[in-house]
Q: What sequence folds into this?
């Protein structure tokens, strides 16, 4: 599969899964690193609760990955740019964004 194959696939409206399988067979059949098969993050998480094994994605990678989406949503909702300090996992120094954006209101006895 090459760029022309992908281009013709997009024009024809082909089935993406079939094309991915072709690409894997063509380019990855002899690869030294194999990707895992996932039943989905929720199923994987529930299976790991039972087995006590680590999930496919670590909590740190998962939380850092979803932070990007949350920050994008905050910027969109508030019509602003956001500067983020990934080391401290908070708004960058000098940022005028309220820290309340990083949490939520909890009912009476629940606190963090």
A:
């Amino acid at each position: 599969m090459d760029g022309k194959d992908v281009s013709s696939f997009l024009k024809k409206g082909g089935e993406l899964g079939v094309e991915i399988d072709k690409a894997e067979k063509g380019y990855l059949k002899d690869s030294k690193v194999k990707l895992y098969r996932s039943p989905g993050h929720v199923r994987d998480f529930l299976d790991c609760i039972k087995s006590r094994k680590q999930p496919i994605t670590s909590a740190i990678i998962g939380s850092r990955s979803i932070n990007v989406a949350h920050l994008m949503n905050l910027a969109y909702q508030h019509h602003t740019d956001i500067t983020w300090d990934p080391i401290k996992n908070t708004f960058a120094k000098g940022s005028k964004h309220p820290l309340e954006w990083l949490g939520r209101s909890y009912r009476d006895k629940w606190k963090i």
